[in-house]
C-alpha cells in the first residue's frame, strides 16, 4: 500500500520564486516594462494638462495658465532632474518599482477631483441654440488645482526615475545593444506626446473612470514587472563593464560630466532638437488653421494616419538601433554617428523650411484682414459667443467665401441633403441660405496638407534619430558611474531648452503673428505664422547642426594630433631603452 505523496512546500515555494522572480537579466523584458511605464506617466502628464485646459475653458483660470505651468514645471525639472538621477544608484530596482506603484495609487485621487461638467462637443448657431460644451464648475477650484499640481509632480518625478535609472540599468547589462534600447525608449516618450493628447486621453472628458483604471493598472503592472524582471542579486557577465564604486558624490558626478566638452556640446544639440520638434508639434493646430483653413476632427481615418506615422518612426529607430550595434557595428563609433546626424540635420532643416513655405490658396475669408479679424456684418446680430468660439470653417457657395464658424456665417440649423450635412438659414448666404462644412479651399488644400503630414513624419523620424545618436555619444563618453546622473542632466537640458526657453520663444512668435486676440488668448493666427514657425524651427536645428559639425571637426583634429604624437613617443621610448 503506497502512502499518498505530500507536496514539498519548500520546493513549491522555491519553484514559485524561480518562476516569478528572474535570476538573470533579460534586457528585452526590462525594456518592455520601462517602455510601458514611460507611456503611462506621459499619458498622466497629458491628462493633467487636459484638466488644466478644462478650467481655462470654464473661465476659472486665465488663458495663459497652461503655458505658465509648462514653463514653471520645466524650471522645476531643470533643477531636480540631475539629483533624481543620482539618488538611489545602488537601489535602482526598488526606486523604479516604488515610484510606479506610488504614482498608480495616487491616480485614484483623481476620483476626488472636483468636476468640470462638459457635454458632448457641437457647434453654435445664430439663433442662440448653442451646441458647444456646456461647462459648469465644481465647488472647490483650489482643491482641483492642488490635485492637478500634484499630478504633474508625481508623474514627472516617476518619469525621471524610470528614465534615469532604467537607461543606466540597461546600459550596465547590455551595452552592446544600448543604441536600440535607448532609441526605443526616447522615441516612445516623444510619440506618446504626439498621439497621447489626440487619441489616448480623450476619456478624461468622456469617461474618467476608464482613464484612471488604464493608467493605474498599467503602472501597477509595470511595478510588478520591475520587481520580477530585475534580479535582486545581479549576476556578473562578460558584457558588463566594471563600475568604480569610489567618489560617487553628486557634485563629483556633475563636475565630471560638465568638464567633458563633448558631452556638454551634444547635450545642448539634443536639447535644441527637442525644442524644435516640441514647438512645431505644440502649435500644429494653429499652424493648420492658419495655413490651410482646415479643422481636423478626430475620426477613424485620422487615427489610422497617426498610427501609421508612429509605425514609420519606430521602424526608422529600430533599424538604426540594429545598425548601430553588433554585428553591423561592433563598437559605437562616435564620429560615424555624428556624421549621420549632420546629414539628418540638413534634411530636417529643408523639411522645416519647405513645410513653412508650402503653397495653399485659401481664398477669401470673411472678416479676415491682413492683421486683424472682425466678425462679418451679416452675422453681427447673432450674438456669437466669442469666448468659447471653436473655429469650424464653413463655405458659403453663393460667393465662395469661407466663414470661421456656422454662427459667424449666420446659420441657425443643420440638415442633410443627399447624405451631405449642410447648414441652413444662413444670413450670410442670401441666395441659397446654405453653407457646407469645411472651407471653400478645402479640396485644393487637402493635397498640400498631405505633403505637410509627410514632412511632419520626416521631422519626427529625424528628430528621434538625432536624439538617439546624441544620447549614445554621451553615454559612451562619460564615466560608467555617472550614467544615471547624465540621463538626469539630459532631461534637465531638454526641460530648459525645449519646455522653458523654447516654449517662450514660440509663444512670442504666436503673439506677434496673432490675427485675432480675444480674452487673453489668440483665436486665429495670420498667414505669416506658419512661415515663421518653420523658419524658427529651421534656425534652431541650424544651431544643432553647427554644434555637431564643430564637434566632428575637433574630434578629427584630436585624432590627427594623437596620430602625430604617437611616433614621437615611440622614438623617445626607443632612445631611453638604448640608453639603458
Kindly describe this structure.
- With about 575 residues, the protein is mainly alpha-helical.
- The protein has three domains: about 20-125 and about 135-235, Growth Hormone, Chain: A; about 260-330 and about 450-570, no CATH class; about 375-440, no CATH class.
- The protein is built from 16 helices and seven strands.
- The strands form two sheets. A five-stranded antiparallel β-sheet has the order 2-1-5-4-3, with no helix packed on it. Strands 6-7 form a two-stranded antiparallel ribbon.
- Strand 3 and strand 4 (about 420-425) form a beta hairpin.
- It starts with 8 loop residues before the first helix and ends with a helix.
- It is found in: Cell membrane.
- One of its GO terms (molecular function) is sodium-independent organic anion transmembrane transporter activity.
- It is a multi-pass membrane protein.
- This is (apollo) hypothetical protein.
